[in-house]
Design brief:
By secondary structure, the chain is an alpha/beta fold. The chain folds into 2 domains: 187 residues, Isopropylmalate Dehydrogenase, CATH 3.40.718; 139 residues, Isopropylmalate Dehydrogenase. 41% of the residues lie in helices and 22% in strands. β8, α7 and β9 form a beta-alpha-beta unit. α1 packs parallel to α12. It is globular. Bound molecules: nicotinamide-adenine-dinucleotide. The site of nicotinamide-adenine-dinucleotide (NAD) has 21 residues, from loops. Nicotinamide-adenine-dinucleotide binds next to loops.
Length: 354
Amino acid sequence: MKAKIVLLPGDGIGPEVVYATVSILEALAKAGNHTFEFDEQLIGGCSIDRYGTALTQEALAACQAADAVLLGAVGGPKWDDPSARVRPEQGLLGLRKGLGVFANLRPVKVYPRLVDASPLRPEKLAGVDLVVVRELTGGLYFGQPKGREQRPEGERAVDTLEYYDYEIRRIVEMAFTLARGRRKKVTSVDKANVLESSRLWRQVANEVHAGYPDVALEHVLVDTAAMRLVSNPAGFDVMVTENMFGDILTDEAAVLAGSMGLLPSASLGSQGPGLYEPIHGSAPDIAGKGIANPMGTALSAALLLRYSLKLEKEAAALERAVERSIEAGQLTGDVGGRLDTRQVTQAIIDHLSL
Ligand code: NAD
């Protein structure tokens, strides 16, 4: 197949992990007889330095016209002033909006070799393999009204948790579809004992469930879900939830794996290109040293192959290659290894078999 992939390396270690992943994708393309055309664009701090904006219209248009977008990370001390008018994260928000991606998928898998890197006891981690599906464009972060005002009683601040049924339906449907290809269990996380928006969420989740009788559905309150993520994480398969709940739970779930450098993510809409990026930031403390862990970005590329290019065989081969590198102890320092980015990348390439 022929595919056009826009690269947004960004700042800090972003370029290091994205270029490493490109060499893996090139090896896969060669093995599978595919042509991947890469188009590199700027995002974040480097775009601010060059163009005065975190994402230009041209860069966004290139992303919109691509089959998929692979992003590194944005930000760093140089652009960290919270009062600055232009900030690197604006590039991310503009990109998500411009691509219409409403679902953020974060798979978390614990590899037996790395159980000691996690703060949880090894026996709690056996069999952990879950995906959190977070709603990305609605809910508490975007609902209106939002703001502050002076009143006779004092200064008042308000945020609104708002959802339309169609916003809930499309993301819950995505979770069920995903669960069908996995262990066939969806956990819908809400706060239906208190929030009206959660009662609508639960109602719609039940309606969607009727179309997926082969998949089990459970409803769990967000506070209970937070507890179960540390007390019995292996009990989850696909979790689906509102924007802010998902923001918190995805970070909690990420801790299970032991390192930020290992975890991938995908942001998807109903159509158009998906956006794939590791969950870590630009890691300014190690940028330029050549020691960044490329696995989170490589696993993001596996999601890209699976969801945007529909190349399941190649996606699985890449995931297997990362797993083999982990099991062989071919690791960067953040997960207890001694190899650098280039050596780990080569190890992954050597383990690829289609
Ligand atoms: P971070 O994820 O960049 O780093 C946290 C710690 O994890 C650091 O010690 C870092 O060295 C380590 N780490 C992260 N990724 C690694 C990798 N691939 N290999 C080895 N070690 C890795 O988070 P932070 O330090 O809070 O943020 C740094 C900058 O990144 C900030 O400017 C922040 O705004 C930005 N950031 C960007 C994104 C994004 O682009 N999506 C996400 C989070 C933070």
